[in-house]
Amino acid sequence: MEKVIDQKAFMDVIRERRSVRHYDPTAKISRDEIKEMLKEATLAPSSSNLQPWRFLIIDEQPLKEKLLPIAFNQKQVVEAAAIIAVLADYEGYKQAGNIYKKAVEAGYMTEEVKATLIDNINKRYENRDRAIIKEIALVDGGLVSMQLMLVAKARGYDTVPMGGYNSEKFKEAFQIPDQYETVMLIAVGKAAEPGHPTTRLDVEEITFWNEMPSK
């Protein structure tokens, strides 16, 4: 029997999500729950299912204080329960064997299919331009980031995606190897003040059917 999704609850999560910048500093989230949220978030799709996303969780107050000036003194950095740094792994394709091994064990593919996929991926990625791998990984990182924010909202937490930080200083301060690219920071916690409502362009303004307008 096909499982019925509660559409109203799902739409409530989408409509009620806000970018929250003021957090209750006394509200904490356990590491176990953060891991559960990440497990749910990583159900997001990725190119060839390579899942190149990696996460650095910053939940210790001295380290949040260290991050504060790097993130241009945005107060959510020190007030939120945690800051999740979403990273993209340039060498994520090397996990193909592990990923597809699990798929074989789950009965999702045969050994023959697994071998073919791994061979194709290695040929495609081993000598691929780093800029192209970055483009793919940033798209995948955006997908998992959005899913993480929706997962957090469904659990009663608030978030804000952050691109306002010095990525080079962040990598240096937190000893991020060159193997990884920063995607964004996500503050997660309990709102002290609600995020302000925003407006959106009408669908008619941004949607075109079968061909783009000339102007």
UniProtKB/TrEMBL annotation:
GO terms for molecular function: oxidoreductase activity. Belongs to the nitroreductase family. Pfam families: Nitroreductase. The gene is ydgI_1. This is NAD(P)H nitroreductase. InterPro entries: Nitroreductase, Nitroreductase-like. The lineage of its organism: Bacteria, Bacillati, Bacillota, Bacilli, Bacillales. The keyword Oxidoreductase applies. Keywords: Oxidoreductase. PANTHER family: NAD(P)H NITROREDUCTASE YDGI-RELATED (PTHR43673), NAD(P)H NITROREDUCTASE YODC-RELATED (PTHR43673:SF3). The keyword Oxidoreductase applies. Signal peptide: none annotated. Residues 14-190 form the Nitroreductase domain.
